[in-house]
Each structure stands twice: as structure tokens, then as C-alpha cells.
Amino acid sequence: MINLKQSVLASTLAISSFGLGAVESYTVIDLGKIEDKPFFVYDINDADEIVGYSYSANNIPFHGVAVKDGMATDLPAIVNETTDLSAYFKLNNNGVSVGFSSETIIRSDQSVNIDRAIYTDIINPELKLVPPLDEETPLNMRALSINDGAFIVGVADYNAPDDEYISGGDATKSAKRGFVYDSVNDILTRLEPLNYNQYYVSAALVDINNNGLAIGWSEQYKDSFNTLRGYYVNVNTPTELIEIPASAEDRSNRAMAINQQGIIAGMRNVDRSFYFTGYLFDTNTETLTDIPNLKEDYFPQSVAAITTPYDINSENQVVGISLIEIAPVQYHAFIYENGETKDLNTLIDCKADPDAEQIGQPDWVLQEARAINNNGVIVGNGFLNGQKRAFKLVPRHGVAPKPCQDLVIKEDSGSGSFSWGGLLVLMTLAGLRRRQSKV
């Protein structure tokens, strides 16, 4: 493999320090549709290029999509007789995106679909496949991230020949394994789980920065109890997995994203076994910082994740989702910066149209922030006037968001006021009186 150096974070770039001031508000941009279908976005690079997938009529992931200069276009998929299913998850600053596509193959005289890890240049699309871990029996495989050096990481099903069930006996079915693929030199490396003891467990790699530091999660069995362990590894030394010390023995943590400075955003159990909240871990100083929830002390009975970070940029700004309502369960998109977690719905204008009256309910509901680039531009998914839409948020420094306000009409006497809802009631009653006067 190419020798990759791991950067050392200067003390001036510690988790508590940020190069930019907090953003006062954002302009929200509707990313539209492709062929009259809404699409779901996953990532944005520093050139504001965006990738994701479009929806089919029944809302299943349908086809990979790229957005450049405001135009959405299809990305390549494996061509099948029944489906050309594909989705793209990450995009580097050279315009290369990774994901998966479904391939129909014949196995044991039956037609089956398997996921193949794919990558393509979004400007000059040409579908390329990551080689499977087992050439003789390809299994499901997805590419989840790519750095600017074209190192790809992901997760694949793999039938390890030495796996055993924790209760004893050979494990004959596949478990998940993380992989690193050097697409320049065509070198594929499989990673074993953290503290692998030949028990039947799964693991994955989910993100990688430009210094070759990759992050993932690994199952761990202890006393018949299963937990997840986040870890990081330099892809130049793929056997040296380092556990993220974010959990007690009976708790789990999952690494989600890593930035160029080696700061990891993840989620972990803290006080309760079944609830996940966000954290930051600095691989240089080995310090851990919790990300506050949008609503503190919110522990619903049926929700596993309270706060989930999806991405972190070079300014240590983190975006993701956080719980705001228990019944029914509702999440909002958040940004964490300067030690504060903020609801992105409070940082946009009540109406996307700057000429619209700021009255009543907002037209946008920002449900999840999926990615933030190094310029602070955010992409995610939500609802526009009740319809599924992908959005882009552009920072506005020094500009306060315009809140929604009720229309107020003063009485003739000059004292008191009526809300918009009260005005509608009065108009209705006036109409009734007019009709009665004609009888």
C-alpha cells in the first residue's frame, strides 16, 4: 500500500476550538426532483457536488443521483433484467463517488440479487466494481466512503473459514467484514474484527480521511452479551485496530464520521443500555466530548437513538439528527458547534421564498442533516409543504433568520388584538350574518 502519514493535530485545533464563528442562519435551497421523482441525499464535497439516490413509486431506493450546478442527473448502475438498483453514499473532492448496485447472478440454479460495491466519476460516469472478498462466491458488498487519494472503505459479507459460534461449533454462514480498497493500485484488504477471537462476529469500516485514518465498528461478545465497539485504524497498518474508549463493558459505541484532523464523531450508550447519544473523540489527544441532545433527559421507551451524528467537517462542525418528540417519534436536523447543539429548523427563514409573508407555519421541516462540507454547506432530507425533498443549506453570517409570526389585526377601539385564527372565525361569522339577513 501507499505509505500514508497520520497528521498531528496542533493544540490550537482542539475540539473546543473552531476556526469560524457560529452561523447565525442559513438559506435553504430545494434540490428539486429528477424525472418527477424526489431523491435522498447523502453527501456533499467542497465543490458543492452532491450524491444520493432517487425514489421509485413505492419509495424504495431506485437509482443513484448526482447534483452539480443545480442539475440532478442519474449515475451508473449494474444493468439487470428486472432492476437497475443503485445508491451512492460518499463523494471525494475529485468527483469520485462510491456506493452499491444490485447484480442478478445465478447461484445453485437460482437467480439471486447481491449488492456489489461500486464507484464512478460523477462528471464522466463509468461504472467500476470493487472486487469481492471471495471471487468464487461473491456476497453482498457496499462501498461506504472514499478519500481524495481514492482509498475506498466499506462492508462486505464474508464466510470466514475459522468462525465459530460462541456456543460452540463451526459458523457456516457469513458475517460482515470491513475492507479497504486501493483503487489506484487495485489492492483489496480485508480487516478482521476488533479483538477477533474466531467467534462469529461482524465488523465494518464506514469512513476514511485523507491521511488514511479509517473508522468502523466491531461486534464484541462477552459473557453471552453482545456490544458494538468503535475503532480507528491507519490503512497502511490494517491489522492495528485501536478501540475508541467511549463505552463501559456493557455499553456500545459506534464511530460514524472522521475529519481531516482525526476527530471522530460517533454515538454511544451512556446511562441507559438502549439509548445512543453523540460524542466526539480526538485521536491525537485521546479526549472524549459528549454532544448534547436537542432535548436533555429525553429517554423514550421505544427509540434506540436520541442523537446520531452523520458527518463532521474540518471546522469540527457536526451534523445529524436528534430527537424532539416522543409520541409520535420525531427527529430534527441539528448542527453542533462551539459546544452547542442547535436545531437547524430554527436557523432558517419561516418561508424559503424571501418575498413570502412570514405568517403561519414554516414550509420546510428539516428532518436530517446528512453531510457538511469544509465551507459549512449542509445537505439533508426533510419535507417541503408536506412533500419529501432534499435540501441544501448555505451559511449566512450576520443575518438573523425570519421567524413565523401570526397576522395581528387591531380592534377599532385601538385596544387588544386578534390572531390570524381569530380573524378567520370573525370572517366566518360575518358571512353567516349576511346570509341570515337575506332570509
Automatic annotation (TrEMBL):
Record's protein name: DUF3466 family protein
InterPro entries: DUF3466 (IPR022562), Gal_Oxase/kelch_b-propeller (IPR011043), HAF_rpt (IPR014262), Kelch-typ_b-propeller (IPR015915)
Highest taxon listed in the record's lineage: Bacteria
Pfam families from the UniProt entry: DUF3466
